[in-house]
Fold this protein.
Amino acid sequence: MIRLMPLLFLGLVLVTPMQAAEPLVFDDPAQEARYQELTGELRCAVCQNQSLADSDAPLAQDLRAEIHKMMMSGRSNEEIKTFLVDRYGDFVLYSPDVGGNTLALWALPFALLLGGALVIVFAIRRRKQLPAAADEERFD
Amino acid sequence: MIGRLLPLLLFLLLGALLAVGLTLSDRKTDLPSPLIGKEIPDFRLPLLGREIETVSQADLIGEPFLLNVWASWCVTCRVEHPVIKALAESGKIRVIGLNYRDARQDALAWLEQYGNPYALNLADTSGRTAIDFGVYAAPESFLVDATGRILYKQIGALTPDVIQNEILPRLQPTGDSP
């Protein structure tokens, strides 16, 4: 009986429904490359740390199929992005459009970097003003 | 003197930002819906159980309703179901189901087992209509007013608190009691 275990296990695995995605057909390699690039640039709403290209979530599968369909009917990348943003919001774009509520998001890192740089500049300037003797004293 | 304190102040500011970020991150997986304030998307779906009949969004506009996205495979939907049933039974608003990516038999059996409080159920087998609604999880619920505008979206299970604080107030915007 124990010898049958591997066979039973194999049977169990084979019976488990595996949702293999149907391979998508493209007109040419350039279009396929464009599809790969676009789905890599879009975020999965379900597995939120993954791109649409990487995610296994059913919604991601649905959206990839939808994107493929839109590409085949001649839609541009912009139109596809708009389609998704209209339904799911800015979140689906890794690079949200600059404007309105995303201005702070874009500007803040540069503002902080600039602020940090200024602090360093002032700190260096102050040190240069101290007489050399004062520095020597510290190492007594 | 302030120059010396500046790095410390900046650090404290960043620390404060971190604290705010951490507290907000509790519901960070909820995506705000861009459909709030907009009219429900166009669709035509068969009725679950009577698929020969189809329903379009125009058929539903006229009276407010709560569109509840559910599926027999969705465990949280089972947890939420008593709340949906109570809401429908209260008569305050009609509840319409959007059966999301489900198999007909499974969905019908689920309603048989747990009860069917829905005025009607739309069979969105492919989930294509759900995409137009920006659905990314089940359960989700949309509060739609009499003109077909989406007033509120609930991501995750509806609770009595949400009904009390978010749904009912939006049904009576002028503050009149029924």
Summary: The first helix of chain A runs from residue 5 to 15. The interface with chain B takes residues 45-46, 48, 58-59, 62-63, 66, 85-89, 91, 115-116, 119, 122, 126 of chain A (CB under 8 Å). Chain A is about 60% helix and 0% strand.
